[in-house]
Design brief:
Length: about 220
């Protein structure tokens, strides 16, 4: 009978003790944790990069603030009483301006009190305020601004009679609208719209003959 071959035992110097095995196990665990942390860090960095890119794209597209547009649609004069071709002293002349606020943005535009003034030959002859309001995204809202004109200030101008003789009266108007634009109820921008108009009013028809307006928007 052949004797079973007996595999010789490894030398004692080559055997791993229990402490060595524990050290190897701890090293493997640390290496595994390190690789897992690197993967998590890479995933987090990629996620932040995607988020930053998305925010930049939204800022320059959807969240980009476009200028609200104020337009003077019409202006009518009421209670105009003439005496010798001029407004009667002490009379209460009322001017009503039809103003529209167009919001080209997706976000709503909520504005505070609207202030307006009317000048003739460099002298302020009337001031008015309109109540606050709101214009929804990509909508246009309209408001009527009523200005009570101080006739005594107009009568103090020496050029009034000559202007009235032409049947036309040229005045300057100034309107300021300040408000806040909100995106998704999180991001907000304060916007101020200013508009200067030169308006020529037909005294006979009591309506606007011509108008030229310039707008200035501060974002």
């Amino acid at each position: 009978m052949e004797r079973d071959q007996v595999r010789p035992l490894a030398p004692a110097s080559e055997r791993l003790s229990s402490d060595d095995l524990e050290t190897v196990s701890n090293t493997q665990k640390k290496e595994f944790r390190r690789k897992r942390c690197l993967k998590c860090g890479a995933c987090l960095a990629a996620l932040l990069l995607i988020l930053a890119t998305l925010i930049v794209v939204l800022i320059f597209t959807i969240f980009r603030v476009k200028e609200p547009i104020i337009r003077l649609n019409a202006m009518t004069v009421q209670n105009l009483e003439l005496a010798n071709g001029a407004p009667k002293p002490g009379s209460n002349v009322t001017l009503t301006a039809d103003v529209s606020v167009k919001n080209p943005n997706l976000a709503s535009f909520r504005y505070s009190n609207t202030s307006s003034s009317l000048s003739y030959r460099g002298t302020v002859v009337g001031e008015a305020r309109a109540p606050p309001g709101k214009t929804k995204g990509r909508r246009t809202s309209r408001m009527n601004i009523t200005v009570d004109i101080v006739t005594d200030r107009i009568l103090s101008q020496p050029s009034l009679i000559g202007d009235i003789s032409t049947g036309l009266l040229t005045m300057d108007s100034y309107t300021r609208v300040g408000g806040r634009m909100k995106f998704l109820k999180v991001i907000s921008r304060y916007v101020v719209v200013k508009m200067n108009c030169t308006v020529t009013v037909n005294i006979t028809t009591r309506s606007i003959q011509t108008q030229k307006c310039k707008r200035k928007v501060k974002l």
